[in-house]
Design goal:
Length: 320
């Protein structure tokens, strides 16, 4: 029986490998057309530079989460532009519109290298950070380098949101855990399809804050772009990295002397509400804004006005 099952899975894998990728939706095409690419090694990295209206607000660099892209921030972008002179967004390698090499070892360290390279290319030496989910961990790696004087970059502030910065209060979805199983993860990624993506991705949004069908299609198109579905299991290596480097990254947060704030959607199944007390206990010097009870893992998408208000309140209290 197991032999027949293996053969069947193999046949399905071959079929799915050859299914044409869904084209980028009009929304994602417009997002791509408003940006540029730069080379990091042999790979193309997508980025956008948005002009802000606050000439003294400084530059903001934004880090997106797993498994999506910089487009996650489109709903709060106008509000962020009012607070800053410039807003920079980019898709990390393996995500969104950037390259997604198959034979590649993805790591938080490399994503931080890419962010530094982008800022260097743009001749930016002082910057504010805003991050979400996976991006929180990348931002914390950059913060650790800043503390250790291993970068010429000056970080002015850091605003985090709904990320698994504490492994003990982070509960990856069952599908994510399965995909980290050697070999099995690679096979299951090849069997991915839209309805499975929609169902699983929808679980991390609130009951009353689900994306529309068109928005789900946009998320899916960005995730699958450049055969992204084939490497999902590779990207999930960050789960082990968070535990491996917990002392470094949580330590960077605890030792931070720059202004730090957390914006948190409390209905998050990945980082449930036990996170709140743990955050306050572990980093008592840093503030946290808890949004409305029905807001979940993507607060910048689910409650853009509330998120923008929280970020504006934090930014306006920064030293001038």
């Amino acid at each position: 029986m197991w032999l027949y099952l293996a053969i069947g899975v193999g046949i399905l894998a071959v079929v799915y490998i050859n299914i044409p990728l869904p084209p980028l939706t009009p929304t994602m095409l417009a997002w791509r057309n408003g940006g540029n690419f730069f080379k990091f090694g042999n790979h193309n990295i997508f980025y956008r530079v948005e002009r802000g209206s606050n000439t003294v607000g400084g530059v903001l660099l934004i880090f997106h989460g797993f498994p999506t892209s910089s487009h996650d921030w489109i709903k709060v972008l106008p509000g962020l532009q009012k607070q800053h002179s410039q807003v920079i967004l980019f898709d990390m390698i393996g995500y969104g519109l950037s390259d997604k090499p198959f034979d590649h070892d993805y790591s938080i360290m490399e994503q931080a290298d890419i962010a530094e390279e982008l800022l260097k290319k743009l001749k930016i030496t002082q910057v504010h950070f805003l991050s979400h989910d996976y991006g929180d961990t990348v931002a914390l790696e950059m913060l650790a380098r800043f503390h250790q004087k291993r970068t010429d970059l000056k970080i002015l502030s850091l605003c985090l949101s709904n990320g698994g910065i504490f492994p003990e209060t982070n509960f990856p979805r069952p599908t994510q855990r399965i995909l980290t199983i050697p070999y099995l993860g690679a096979i299951l990624c090849r069997l991915s399809f839209y309805r499975a993506f929609r169902r699983g991705f929808g679980e991390v949004f609130g009951v009353h804050t689900q994306p529309t069908e068109a928005e789900f299609r946009d998320f899916h198109a960005a995730t699958w772009n450049n055969h992204g579905y084939l490497i999902t299991y590779k990207l999930l290596g960050y789960l082990a990295e968070r535990s491996q480097h917990k002392k470094r990254w949580v330590g960077a947060l605890q030792e931070a002397t720059i202004p730090v704030h957390m914006i948190y959607g409390p209905s998050d199944p990945v980082n449930p509400s036990v996170f709140i007390d743990h955050y306050k206990k572990t980093v008592p010097r840093h503030g946290i804004t808890v949004l409305s009870p029905d807001i979940s893992h993507y607060p910048q998408w689910e409650a853009p006005e509330e998120f923008t208000q929280a970020y504006t309140g934090f930014h306006q209290q920064l030293p001038k």
